[in-house]
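Exercise 3.2. Students should predict the tertiary structure of the chain below and write it as structure tokens, then compare their answer with the key that follows.

Predict this chain's 3D structure.
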Amino acid sequence: MRDRKLLKILGNKDVIALAFGAMIGWGWVVTAGLWVTEAGSLGAILAFLIGGLLVVLVGLTYAELASALPLAGGELVYSFKAMGRTVSFIATWAVILGYVSVIAFEAVALPTVFEYLIPNYSQGYLYTLAGWDVTMTWAGIGIIGSIIVAWVNYRGIKLTSSITVILTGLILAAGVLLITGGTASGSVETMEPFFAAGSAGIMSVIIMTPFMFVGFDVIPQAAEEINVPQKRIGQLLIVSVLLAVLWYVAIIFGVSRMLSPAELNESNLVTADAMAKAFGDSRLMGNFLVLGGIGGILTSWLGFYVGGSRAIYAMARAGMLPKSLGELHPKYNTPHKAILLIAVLSTAAPLLGRPALQWFVNAGGLGLVVAWLMVAISFIILRKKEPEMKRPFKLSGGTVIGWIAVVMSIGIGILYLPGMSSALVWPYEWAIIGIWAILGFVLYKVSMKKYGTAYADKRMKEEIDRIA
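Answer key:
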């Protein structure tokens, strides 16, 4: 079983679609109104530019490391080589929290779409959670969608990639129509207030941006399945990040030009309503935007199954998680047990209701910032520790970009902490963080007791030496 390898079949188009589709997801459809109302139109744009700058800088460090160490697991490999086993586990477990949060987010987001397409479809009251009535049909749509997406990933990377490329085209078509329609039909007056709630409003949006931009790091996770020159891996990663920054800024601009603050507050799906208004209150165009949003849900869902399952696979291969999670399917060459584990964790998410959307955004965002911080530190350490390491995509300026990424990661990470105006919400968001940390601690201790620390270190070094 150890000799079975992941299939190396992803080309340029597949990689860009996988990363861009993962980054875009559904957030631009369901939470764009929240960004504008929290920070104002220009405040929201500024928040995404600040968050985007962090992601570009962190992405540059990823790009160098991914091209130098193209192994499944990404963060696991970089942080192990720089700082050892324990730190590598923490970094990778943190990023998996981000990935699983996105997957769970999409499982909750899917039934939200149907509220726009099929009004009053939510029937069969179950219970109320955080002020939201959870129904059988609402939760059922999310659960069924989760099972289907898990099945697609189970069947192989080629099927996943082909579907992602097609759906990315649908997202782009819907988004471009919204942006052009909003630019032509909207007005600057509608964008007022340009800034809402001052710096507190901007900070409340900044803490959402890591979650919205996560996806570029799916590329390093799938590095063993990418069939392009090593230098190109880094280039494709940066291109995907820049495209996502441009996308989010343009969407905020288009929506804020079309809908006033009052309309934003009244709307359940602001991008769809903005699209409809941009084309003469056309319900058809609003529905088309929603179809693009469904495409975003699916591309993000598919992409993070790839990223999350490959990260779990790499950890299990190293003996840091139960080895069975590192097994590849004999026919599809997918880490099928890792995929099933994620499916079990995320399929229950719709039972938490719509309020869980923001819980997953914020809790997952903190996990991502922790992982990005570890990667930036690894970049700095490896520049000092391994100056002769082959780096097909090498950044100029020494470690400057790495240090800026470290400072920005710490700065944004502080925004999640108690006492800040944008702190995580107790008990829901901190409960997600706490449960995930306890689960990781238990799995790590059990695996280390069963396989031994020497085994984990040996396996990691063997994998790194294999591509040296």
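Discussion points: The first strand starts at residue 125 and ends at 129. Residues 23 and 215 are 4 Å apart (CA to CA).
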